[in-house]
Every structure is written in C-alpha cells, then in structure tokens.
Amino acid sequence: MNEPYTLAQDRAPRTRAEAVEFVRELTVRPDYFGTGYRKRDPFESDPAEWAVLDEDCLWQREGLPGTVLASLTRMYELPAKGGKGPVYVSLTVTVHQDVVSARRDMAGSLEEALRCPVQQLNATDRVRGLYSRADAFTEGRTVVSDDDLTESGDWVADGAKAHPFDWYKFRMGPVTVAATARHGSGRTETEDSTVTTDIAKGMTFVAASVDGRGKAGDASATAEPTEPKGAGQ
User: Fold this and answer.
1) Does residue 131 contact residue 153 with C-beta atoms inside 8 Å?
2) pLDDT tens digit string along 175-226?
3) Per DSSP, what are the bridge partners of residue 228?
4) What number of CA atoms fall less than 13 Å from residue 132's CA on the CB side?
5) Do residues 38 and 77 make contact, with C-beta atoms less than 8 angstroms apart?
6) What b/e string do you get for 90-115 counting C-beta neighbours within 10 Å, with b at 16 or more?
7) pLDDT reading at 231 higher than 80
C-alpha cells in the first residue's frame, strides 16, 4: 500500500511568520480543480483569521486561536457557460502548532455536521442535509493523507433551487487542507459527479505539494506536484 502524503513535525513551520510564508507560497493552481477554473476576486483571506462555525450554526471569521499558526483561504470559480451556472471553490490551508492540535481540529470538523446539519454560509447562502464521513481506517481506502474527511449536502442561495455541495478535509502532519465546492445550476447528475471528482483530485495535488515540501527538508520551498495518489479514482 502506498504511504500517505504527510509533513513531519520537525519539518513544519514553527513560528507564525514561517507558517504565513508556508501557506502563501504553497502551489495551488486554478486548473488543479479542472479546466476553465480561475481565481475569484477577492482571492485570498487574511492568514491571521479562520472560519468558525458559531453556536447559531453561522460561519464567520475570527482571529486564530493559540494552537494555529496561520490559515489561508483562496477562492476559485468555474464561470457560467452554456446554460450552466458557476461553480465556486474555496481551498484553505491551515498550519497548526503541532500534530495533536491538527488532529483535534479534524475531530471537531467531523462533529460539526452532527451539531449543525443546516449551516449558514453568509446572509443569503446556506447548506443543508450535511453528511460527514471519515475514512482514515477503512480497508482499501486510497491512501492520500494521514487523515481525511468528506462531507456532502445541498447548497441553497437566496431561496433558489438546491444544488450539490462538496467538502473535503485532509491532514498532513500538523497541516490541514480543506476544500468546498458549490455547484451551479444546469448540470446533469453525471456532470455534477465530474465536478465532485475533479475537486477531490485537486485536493490531492495540494496534499502532494505539502508532502513534497516536507521531503525537500524546507517548509518554505515551492514544490510543483506531479500526478497525485488516487488522481484517477
């Protein structure tokens, strides 16, 4: 069985400055998620903040806790074309203080769908019917990372018709990588399935970048991933 993508604790960023440099320099190209994707405007978040699901199941940005060194979200989109609505993708890379903190964050993420099956993304958008799954110890699992989570549900904007919503989260040592995809209108089930598969493939490219930088022995060096594990799955 292939070894998972990971980042050894002793090769991970140790300070907030190193962590910010790490998340900013990590290679994440729009075409990782499929042909035609581009950067959105605004493109990047403040690495000194991260998204928190509050007691009212509303997502909002807050300052980082002491166990997190940096967290950067980048936004991408597949523009509307040929009667098909846009697909919105967010990709978040978070550097935790240590592996234990990253594991706790993964556990907390798994519990969020149980606590909040309906989540408010902003004033107009929400996701519902969320279902989370952890496959870290499943026999036959495609080895991608130290831990991984998946979540699916429906995305509703301004009370319009619901469309698929995908969420993935990987852990490589003390680093977590999360992605969400909000599908646009006008796609068949097969086309929506392709979007989901492409987002998952893009996530493995990012995991490969994290792994490659760790193996290079320099957490601030850039690394361009090749075809990742499980890319054809």
Assistant:
1) yes
2) 999 999 999 999 999 999 999 999 999 999 999 999 998 887 655 444 455 5
3) none
4) 19
5) yes
6) bbbbbbbbebebbbebbeebbebbee
7) no
